[in-house]
Design goal:
mainly alpha; two-stranded antiparallel sheet; 7 helices; 2 strands
Length: about 190
């Protein structure tokens, strides 16, 4: 899979980033909710909590790899665009291109991207597709799906996924707040007898 695409007339490659929804802090927003089992008061079996933590960690890992890919693609595109403008990069022979000191950085970025694409794919395959025991795990999966759906090609679908993730984060926080408020208020059975 080629990480870059040609833009057309100017024959300059741009990163795939223009098709991706690059959201700063996606993982922070996705995992900003507290543990939903604490919010609802439900006690999950230890195996469910471990499964949730594993799923959430795999989603966080996928998001981190995807963000690193995005940064490298941006650097690659900027460097190649600069080389095209300043050194007529696309008019140079492969030998002339390799003679330029910046060619090594492009080559290194390409190598890193190849490894990261494989890691991202393997991590995606390791994320469980069902059986999320809590809201945090569902929110984490939606954060990954949000990055997988290209906003420019599927704006309605992307908006639905983004909205669902945000809604679940708000719901989780509300449950947590209500749970905390409930812990500080007197219980009915604690009321003095009349």
């Amino acid at each position: 899979m080629d990480p870059r695409r040609k833009t057309g007339a100017e024959n300059v490659r741009l990163p795939e980033l223009s098709r991706r929804a690059v959201i700063a802090g996606t993982s922070v927003a996705a995992f900003g909710a507290v543990k939903p089992e604490a919010a609802t008061g439900a006690i999950l079996p230890t195996s469910a909590m471990v499964a949730s933590d594993v799923g959430v960690r795999r989603c966080a890992s996928w998001l981190a790899i995807d963000a690193k890919i995005a940064r490298l693609q941006t650097r690659w595109a900027k460097l190649e665009t600069w080389l095209a403008k300043e050194h007529a990069w696309f008019k140079l022979s492969p030998a002339e291109q390799q003679a330029l000191p910046w060619a090594k950085e492009l080559h290194d970025i390409d190598g890193c991207l190849d490894v990261l694409f494989e890691q991202r794919e393997a991590t995606l395959k390791s994320i469980p597709s069902s059986g999320s025991p809590d809201l945090e795990a569902v929110i984490a999966k939606l954060a990954v799906v949000e990055r997988l759906i290209w906003r420019e090609e599927y704006p309605e679908v992307h908006a639905l996924i983004t909205g669902a993730r945000r809604d679940l984060t708000v719901i989780s926080r509300q449950h947590s707040r209500l749970r905390m408020e409930g812990a500080h208020s007197p219980k009915v059975c604690d009321a003095p007898a009349a």
